[in-house]
Design a protein that fits this description.
Layout: E1 2-5, H1 11-20, E2 22-25, H2 31-37, E3 43-46, H3 54-58, E4 65-68, H4 78-83, E5 87-90, H5 93-111, H6 114-122, E6 140-144, H7 148-159, E7 163-167, H8 173-180, E8 184-186, H9 189-195, E9 198-201, H10 215-220, E10 225-229, H11 238-246, E11 250-255, E12 275-277, H12 286-305, H13 314-317, E13 321-323
Parallel strand pairs: 1-2, 1-3, 3-4, 4-5, 6-7, 6-9, 7-8, 9-10, 10-11, 11-12
Antiparallel strand pairs: 5-13
Helix pairs in contact: 1-12, 5-7, 5-12
Bound molecules: D-malate (MLT).
D-malate (MLT) is lined by residues 47-48, 70-72, 95, 282-283.
Amino acid sequence: MRLLIASSIHSEAIAALQRHHDVVCAFNAPEEQLRALVPDREALIFRSGVQISARVMEAAPHLRLLLRAGSGTDNIDLDYVYRNHLTLIRIPGPGAKAVAELSFSLMLNLARNVIPANEQWQQGHWVKKEMTGYNLTGKVLGIVGAGNIGSRVGQLGAAWGMEVLGCVEIPTPAEAERLAALGIRLASFEEVLERSDFVSVHVPLMPSTRYLIDEAALARMKPGAFLVNLARGGVVDEAALARALDSGHLRGAGLDVHEREGEGHISPLAGRPNVILTPHIGANTYDSQREIGEIIVAAIDQFAANPDPTTWPPAVLGRVVYERELVRESIQ
Ligand code: MLT
């Protein structure tokens, strides 16, 4: 197949694809550059950080397959995809493990002041008295969006000895049962905000979730709580969060995703000792990226032989999500 790899994926996957396919690589290219590269391409492989807009896809008359090497679909013009009957496949499983662990890492680091303590002691300042922190054990963990990733964070919280609450877009008895089996109690969005000592956000960015965590939601949060966002920038109103931190209402925040991402942007939350900011590295572990790479290679080989994913062997189909209709909130 003629492929365009538009994001950095695992090098072994690129090498494997190059052995059997015609591969062009252009990582995180802007729209005009993508348009120039796609006219003969049959498949696009990409992560976040690149916009798969209608203008890009219009320039690719041979395009049949979009392979999202991860979870989110907020960088794809989904209307165009479905109107033009393109096949969209996501690989959300491997990254979920890595994102869930980073969520825990941010909560632990915030609760124990690890980053400021490290900075001080590396400069010779023995700040033992000032650096008293909090346990996670025994606290309430709230998951906003207890789907694929959020459920994993909840599971980790339950194993850590936390009381875990989770809300979902469409609460049903079946969802309550699924979550209960993982140690998560289904709750309303409001209860999650009001009762949690740690709130971890995992909803996809959609019109209905833009600024879901706004001034009012932040005001509802328990005084002294911590907030972490590993979903998408735009789900949390960063200016409102800055005010909630500066007023002392929230104790700390960790964000891996930002309203403005990419080289050269400075977050409005920067410079606060109780804030941790990471550059959208949630899914960036060697383990998860290697696993995603293996699945990409298997999926491309399958698609080349048979473009109907519903008939693929379970060993491949079971590791991807084949999106046949407009992606809904519950799948992230
Ligand atoms: C994802 O949606 O899978 C993550 O944002 C990781 C990525 O694509 O870089």
